[in-house]
Amino acid sequence: MIATGATGGDPLLYMPRSKKPARSHSRRRRVKKHSMILSTHNYVLVALGVLAIVLGYAIMRLENEVDGFLSLYVAPLLILGGYLEIIYAILWRNSTHTGNSARSAE
Fold first, then answer.
1. 8 Ramachandran zone, left/alpha/beta (phi>0; psi -120 to 50)
2. Among positive and negative, which fits the CA dihedral 58, 73, 76, 55?
3. CA-to-CA dists, residue 22 to 12, 17, 26, 27, 93, angstroms
4. pLDDT tens per residue, the chain (106 residues)?
5. C-alpha torsion sign, points 49, 50, 53, 59
6. 47, 84, 100, 105: least surrounded by Cβ within 10 Å?
7. Burial class (CB in 10 A: 0-12, 13-18, 19+), 61
8. Which of 25, 47, 26, 27 is nearest to 38 (CA)?
């Protein structure tokens, strides 16, 4: 059936509001326990990589010569090693994570 608006203007379709079922208090949000992606060992390796990078830049600055042995050979290797250490630290995974799935498959 078509009803008119409150001001008597355009006709509106009458649609009753649907009632939402009341939520019971017995259902509570379940908090999932998430494990950390990186372990403590990973963070130690990242810290060592950052330390190597900072040490490499400090050696490069302290020698302050373009043709010096430390600034030309040692410092770039330390910096590169630091970046590689950080990449390794992020990708490193404990062997117990993969060992459990291999054992359950047997």
1. left
2. negative
3. 29, 15, 12, 11, 46
4. 555 656 665 556 666 666 666 555 555 666 667 777 888 899 999 999 999 999 999 999 998 888 899 999 999 999 999 999 999 999 988 877 554 444 444 4
5. negative
6. 105
7. exposed
8. 47
